[in-house]
Design brief:
256 residues, mainly alpha, Helix Hairpins, 66% helix
Length: 256
């Protein structure tokens, strides 16, 4: 199963009358839903939960891209091109790709916020690493026109909570893109223990185990088995660099 549909079989059914049900069904139209089900090999009468999960996650991702692109009031041709490139990088072709494009168009003017869609995506995707990679894609989209607008910067700062990733990731991305972090903790360096997902009071063996587990999760073979394309696997190198920096800082502090 690809990362798109991992672990979320019941999500579409649970959201049927809510945010994703709206964007997939009433907002976009029954034709799209029918086509999407058909292309994924499931009928309306006997659809598979995995297919529904993939639909829900694709909808949430496409809608997030749409909302961020529209954040400064209009969507440029460069932003549209970038989002289409993201769909290509995900390996989406034919009806799947058309489905995402239709969601993208429909979501830009609907009543839901990007944070609504981000929360749905976070509920759908259990892997923190994948959510951080998607966060990186949002940063790339914001930089398509050469600068991050105040509206985009505000979204990128706040959306970490909805995506359920560390708020410090915003400051890290700022520094990666040559921007000065802002906010109450702007000057603070990222907590290496938080990056590894363990407590400062954890023992050396526990911290080593946490580092090894993080590194294993980001190994190209593991990510490829989850359905990530080579281009998205390359994006994981940024996450691995962040984890290595945290591990090296802890090693020096603890003299491991």
């Amino acid at each position: 199963m690809s990362w798109i549909g991992a672990g979320i079989g019941a999500l579409f059914g649970a959201q049927r009358g809510g945010i994703l049900g709206g964007v997939i069904g009433a907002v976009i139209g029954n034709w799209v839903e029918g086509k999407a089900r058909e292309m994924m090999g499931s009928s309306t009468a006997g659809r598979s939960s995995a297919s529904d999960g993939e639909l829900a996650t694709l909808a949430a991702l496409a809608a997030m891209l749409s909302k961020l692109a529209k954040a400064d009031g209009r969507i440029t041709a460069d932003e549209v091109h970038y989002c289409e490139k993201v769909f290509d990088r995900l390996g989406l072709q034919g009806e799947k790709r058309e489905y995402c494009i239709r969601v993208f168009r429909a979501a830009k003017n609907d009543a839901h916020s990007i944070y609504d869609y981000a929360a749905s995506f976070a509920s759908a995707q259990p892997s923190t690493n994948i959510r951080e990679i998607v966060y990186g894609l949002l940063w790339e989209l914001a930089f398509v026109d050469g600068m991050v607008s105040p509206e985009e910067r505000g979204i990128l700062r706040q959306i970490t909570a909805s995506l359920r990733i560390s708020a410090a990731h915003f400051n890290w991305q700022c520094r990666q893109h040559g921007l000065s972090p802002d906010g109450p903790n702007a000057a603070a360096a990222e907590d290496p223990y938080e990056v590894l997902g363990c407590s400062r009071t954890a023992g050396d063996d526990e911290i080593k185990k946490a580092y090894r587990e993080k590194a294993k999760q980001l190994h190209p073979d593991v990510l490829r088995a989850q359905g990530l394309s080579d281009e998205l696997i390359a994006k994981a190198n940024d996450q691995m660099a962040r984890i290595n920096a945290a591990w090296n800082e802890i090693k020096q502090t603890r003299k491991l």
